[in-house]
Protein: Cupin domain-containing protein
Amino acid sequence: MSNYPIVETGAGVTRQVLADHPELMVVAFRFDRSGAEGALHAHPHVQSTYVESGRFRFRVGEREFEVSTGDSFVIPSGVEHGCICLEPGKLIDCFTPRRDDFL
Structure:
């Protein structure tokens, strides 16, 4: 169980830091409804995403693809990315180094 607060990041989307260390952070993003968006953005951190549940359409750079429960992928540092929820669910993201802006 995480001691970090649940933070609303958009309509139907929340995030909660699950664990952190200066070199690594684990964060859960919950999408409560189809159509909820993870806005396009980029950051200097390398990101690994695991789909715990649900179905999502991702854009990573110029590439678009769909993922569902059990899928995972890596987003390189500095690459613009975002997603649209197709079926409600949860993403588990790992960032290296830690995203201090989430603390």
About this structure: The CA atoms of residues 15 and 55 lie 17 Å apart.
